[in-house]
Design brief:
homodimer, alpha+beta, Ubiquitin-like (UB roll), 2 domains, 11 helices, 16 strands, globular
């Protein structure tokens, strides 16, 4: 989209946001007192701090087992009327299913509020990592004052590194756009590699913007865009307990606050879509053990929901995932996954299937039936790293995209021994 | 159960059922004319033939993409008023998503009816294997008369071998029981290893009995028992297009026909449960790439449906499956899977979790919270080949069991290149 320029800076791209990150030994114990606090071990705790009080919107896991930080964050924002100043987030421990979980999450907020001299209910707290392991508070007590000291307008990389668990790459994306004649910025960071499945705000995501948007419009934009980005992502079909997607707006761009569904709101949503879509693709590409990105576009669907359901069913199928890994054009598996998608509005006798990549595009199914296609061409297409599965329902005008990855030996390896 | 004696004989255990199987080259071409028709290649086509007209009941895939044989079998039984004499079934090709699929499935019935001199609509046809590949009819034309010649009351092993695809073991089970003072027999064979997921009659299953049961009661028993056996099985979350579970009753045991829900009906259902439960366990154990059988028992649930939903959610979770493979007691993943189970009736704050095997039993979660348990003991328990995950919802009296297997490197290997 020509209105958006991709920029660097992640969560610090927007005006008024500082960040920091460091290693404090959540999983492996405090750094040795004699070492520099920033050892060569990967950062495991991060802080974001806004120069001004911000409007905040959130979407959270729909799992009934909820991480204590999810509960505490929701409580805080309810108390503060949707206002937030800071985020504290750790990796290495999900602080979920622990008897003292909420107490510890509240303590994280208290420590952060104290260090930054802000009200406790304006702190957003999040955790990611092993479920059902007591969160050690000592490393956090040690880290929070240091994080506050280290805060900087260039701290986005330190923070984005801190939230990684089995992620192999850091995930940041930001854009620049114009609203009401003012230059606005919107950027985010995300983590997530496994335990990723639709119907929630997948994984941990923090997005900041300097565009002025009312709390209601902020929530509306976030909910709409989550539906067609993060919620259209599946790595393994497991729905995490700690998913949190936060959107925080400082308003420092100086535009007239967006308070209704006007043209500016549309521009803002487009910017949010750009960032969230690109973070979604990064998450899919970096799915645990993944070697290939799979994009499934469902078109000519009767409505958006049906298009999403069909595309997600294909993306989730272990047999489709292994077929892409094996570079085998066994497209009956795609037809099969469309057939069991939970929708009454899919007429499988109209189903068309295409495979595509940089190497070309071929049709393999027409009207629900297998076609005589070139296996050679299919092999060429499937050799690429980014594969598109295009399904046509020929029953309407709606289109949706879902993202996922192949299923490989390494997914099994990574998850067979996750806690150690 | 003391009323049931496990016996051999599979689908030939009941009076009046002959079977046969042979290799005809569905996938790899006709056997060389100079060779014996029974080469050392695995059987790929089987026939069952009843001495008398039987009552037949069926449960079929709920996938909207249905194999042509599923459609043809349903049509036949509708025409025959639920009467059947013969089954013809091949592996190596699912005959699904093919333009000439129904024509070929009908032709299989015609050939069988001709060879056995019975009405065409009394033939049950089934196919399993690759989807979207034209079914070669020549091997079937060659095979059917030979299968008819070879039919024998000891043909169950030849037949059970013929329906295997990626199965590594043959799956047969049979019991002897008494109804109305008469000795009855009920036995079955099953195939299935991948593309296995609840909400359907998983895979191909054929069960025969000499117990006299009316068509209505036969269907009622089958539907009830499918719900708590095959439908509580998940290997990979993919729902096949060709699932067919047939129950065929010859009535030759000589008992008064069961026509209502009396005590005899209960005895018959118990026998059916024994056979179907044991076939389900065999299917789970032989899941593609599986090294461990996982049994999840959900107890103290508010009702049966909730118990099934919770147990199946755990069995299906890729992260639970890899944790069992890795012998890692990361029970937060079990709590997580219960948390996203699709039921409003689960109170996760009451959730108890236990791990058990021949090596012992330990509790790891109480009231939804992680407990301090012995990792050593857990490691001992998880070293075994058959693992039980016990979840207590503490909200009622209902119990259900679901069966599955671990997720291993070999699942990926088997499915990365299935067609060749």
């Amino acid at each position: 989209m020509e209105n958006f320029e991709t920029i660097s800076g992640g969560i610090c791209a927007a005006k008024g946001f500082k960040a920091s990150g460091l290693y404090c030994g959540i999983k492996h114990g405090l750094p040795d007192g004699n070492e520099s606090p920033v050892s060569n071990k990967k950062n495991d705790i991060a802080m974001i701090f806004a120069d001004v009080e911000c409007n905040a919107a959130g979407v959270y896991t729909s799992n009934k087992v909820k991480g204590a930080p999810v509960v505490v964050t929701k409580n805080n924002l309810a108390k503060s009327g949707g206002k937030a100043r800071a985020v504290i987030v750790n990796s290495g421990n999900a602080n979920t299913c622990n008897a003292d979980g909420e107490e510890k999450a509240v303590e994280m907020c208290r420590l952060t509020a104290e260090a930054l001299n802000i009200p406790m209910e304006q702190v957003i707290v999040a955790s990611t990592g092993v479920i059902g392991l007591t969160l050690p508070i000592e490393p956090i007590k040690y880290a929070v004052p240091l994080l506050a000291e280290k805060l900087s307008y260039e701290g986005n990389i330190e923070a984005a590194t801190a939230i990684m668990t089995t992620d192999t790459v850091r995930k940041e994306y930001a854009v620049k756009f114009t609203v009401d004649g003012k230059e606005c910025h919107l950027g985010g960071m995300a983590k997530g590699s496994g335990m990723i499945h639709p119907n929630m705000a997948t994984t941990l995501n923090f997005i900041t913007t300097d565009c002025a948007v009312s709390p209601e419009m902020l929530q509306k934009a976030l909910s709409e865009i989550v539906k067609i980005t993060y919620n259209c992502l599946s790595v393994d079909g497991d729905q995490s307990t700690n998913d949190t997607c936060m959107l925080i707006a400082s308003g420092l761009a100086g535009n007239t606050e967006i308070t209704s569904e006007n043209e500016d709101f549309q521009t803002f949503k487009d910017a949010l879509y750009q960032v969230m879509k690109n973070l979604t693709i990064m998450l899919a590409k970096d799915g645990e053990g993944a070697t290939k990105l799979i994009t499934c576009v469902c078109s000519s669907a009767p409505d958006l929901d049906t298009a999403i359901i069909a595309a997600k069913s294909v993306i989730r199928s272990p047999l489709v995932k292994t077929m892409i890994y094996g570079e085998d054009a066994n497209c009956g598996r795609i037809a099969c996954a469309v057939g069991y998608a939970e929708s009454d509005k899919i007429d499988v006798t109209k189903l068309d299937i295409f495979l595509a990549s940089k190497a070309g595009k071929i049709q393999t199914y027409k009207d629900g039936l297998n076609m005589d296609f070139s296996e050679e061409k299919a092999a060429e297409i499937l050799k690429e790293d980014e594969i598109e599965i295009l399904i046509g329902l020929n029953s309407g005008e709606a289109t949706a995209t879902a993202w996922g990855c192949d299923l490989t030996y390494d997914y099994v390896k990574i998850n067979g021994d996750y806690r150690s």
